[in-house]
Amino acid sequence: MSDTTPRNRPEPDRSDPGGKQGPRGDAGSRGRTTIADGVVEKIAGMAARDVEGVHAMGTGFARTFGAVRDRVPGGGKSVTRGVKAEVGEKQAALDLDLVVEYGVSIVDVANAVRRNVVAAVERMTGLEVVEVNIAIGDVKLPDEEDDDEDDQQQRVQ
User: Fold this and answer.
1) pTM to 2 decimal places
2) Which residues lie below 8 Å from residue 77, measured CB to CB, with a gap of 6+?
3) Other CB atoms closer than 10 Å to residue 80's CB: what's the count?
4) Could you read off the pLDDT of 97-135 as tens digits, one per residue?
5) Which residues touch 41 (CB under 8 Å, ≥6 apart)?
6) How many of the other CB atoms lie within 10 Å of CB of 31?
7) Which of the ends of the chain has fewer CB neighbours closer than 10 A, N or C?
8) E-state strands within 31-116
9) Contact 95, 83 (CB under 8 A)
10) Phi, psi of 137 (to 5 degrees)
11) Which residue, among 90, 77, 91, 99, has the nearest Cα to 130 in the 3D structure?
12) Which positions ≥6 away from 59 have C-beta within 8 Å?
């Protein structure tokens, strides 16, 4: 009798007779991972705040609204204030609103923030960061009090 098994079919895997190991192949190709915009916003917000010269994040209105929300029990501080992310399957784009300290080089701070944010987001998510747009909305002067500090002093008096 001759062998009638076609030669172009793979031989069955006899090393797993019960079929308990499942299909062979890269484990990363066995499903999909999605990352929410808010996750990328948190990562970017934390990375931006780590840069020396960044005083706060958000526009004037967002900071005022956030200061009120921070005082509400359970409101907590928002690390996403001043960060907007658009996340696709493989790429992300970010917009950041910053307040910088007086006396620092805005260009140097913006470049450092951009580098830190890109590195953190790409390392933690695997997404390619295609752009990080930075808007400097204010400069914190040395003699200015923070909105939060001023409100705290008025409440304590």
Assistant:
1) 0.68
2) 66, 70
3) 20
4) 999 999 999 999 999 999 999 999 999 999 999 999 999
5) 79, 80, 83, 84, 85, 94
6) 6
7) N
8) 54-57, 83-87, 91-101
9) yes
10) -95, -15
11) 91
12) 82, 97, 137
